[in-house]
Amino acid sequence: MKLNNILIFGLKLLVSAGSLYIVFSKNDMHQVGVTLTRIGPAAFLTASAMYIVSLLGATFRWKLLLPERFTLRRLFSLYMIGSFFSSFLPGVIGGDAVKAYYLNKDAKKLSLTLASIFMDRYLGYVALIGLGMLAFPFSLGLISGSPYKWAMPAIFGSFVIGSFLFFGLRLGKRFRVVSEFYEYFALLKDRKDVIVKAVLISVFIQIMSFGAVSLLAFAMGEHIPVKMVFLFLPIVSTITTLPISISGIGVRESVFVLLFGLIGVTSEAATALSLAWFFSSFVGSLPGLAFYIRHANKPEVKNS
């Protein structure tokens, strides 16, 4: 098992390294550096702060989805820890796995913990692709000649089919862990007010993310239409979420270059924007280290 994990990590590392090599070899890296310096500390730190605010919003959403009572402070610290591990140790320890580990110490029910984290991610993705599809018809004029214009509808269609198979046909319900998932979903189904609130919070979270990218692009001197940010980022996030690389490194830069190149953004500017977005999120996740140290020293925290 350990050997398999090493091999998988090695393959992901190869994909990330290879993608970065291709992107960097085709760019004037000096120009990428110059473009990055245009951002300035104020815009960069603002983007990092927006990332932290989005995590706070995600904490509110997660609290809504948990039937048991946990303090907002407790859940926010777990979200920060998960974010830190996802950014600082990409591909080694998943942020969601860390969140599940610590929350399960209190909940004492792994199925509940995993189901709440799954639904938290699911509703976040619903908002993400919903905003992407909302921007799609307004963006066709700028990318009408590209075959990639159908990427967003294809992702949306695949998501709808996948959701139907999982929730409609209840695939895997014979397995105990999965059946307990469905029990949680059945309880949540009757709480439509919770679902609506969670989706609205998810929309806010995604807008914060889109806003951070738009801010960084503006600070670089790139005036990218907001509707294109709304269209492209869901595609970027979907592709980088696929378990084929280390935290999307390299793949994210490649997709940025491909998509933003469709509207005239240079390869150097698109690469710089992708790196700036990643590093601003990374800086925003650093407080998670302090939370992790505190949790490591005091692993048992009572819920309220």
Give the key terms.
304 residues, mainly alpha, 13 helices, 79% helix, 0% strand, globular
Notes on the structure:
The chain is mainly alpha-helical. It has one domain (43-295). It is 79% helix and 0% strand. The protein is built from 13 helices and no strands. Helix 4 (72-88) crosses helix 13 (287-297). The longest helix is centred in the middle third of the chain and has 34 residues, at 110-143. The protein is globular and about 55 Å long. The model has no long low-confidence stretch (mean pLDDT 87).
SS elements, strand count: 0
Number of domains: 1
Helix content: over 70%
Number of alpha- plus pi-helical segments = 13
The mean pLDDT is 87
Which structural class do the helices and strands define?
mainly alpha
Tell me about the biggest sheet? none
- Residue runs with pLDDT of under 50 for 5 or more positions: none
In short:
With 304 residues, this protein is an all-alpha fold. It has one domain (43-295).
Outline the secondary-structure elements.
Elements: H1 2-25, H2 29-37, H3 40-65, H4 72-88, H5 95-107, H6 110-143, H7 151-168, H8 176-189, H9 192-220, H10 226-241, H11 251-261, H12 267-285, H13 287-297
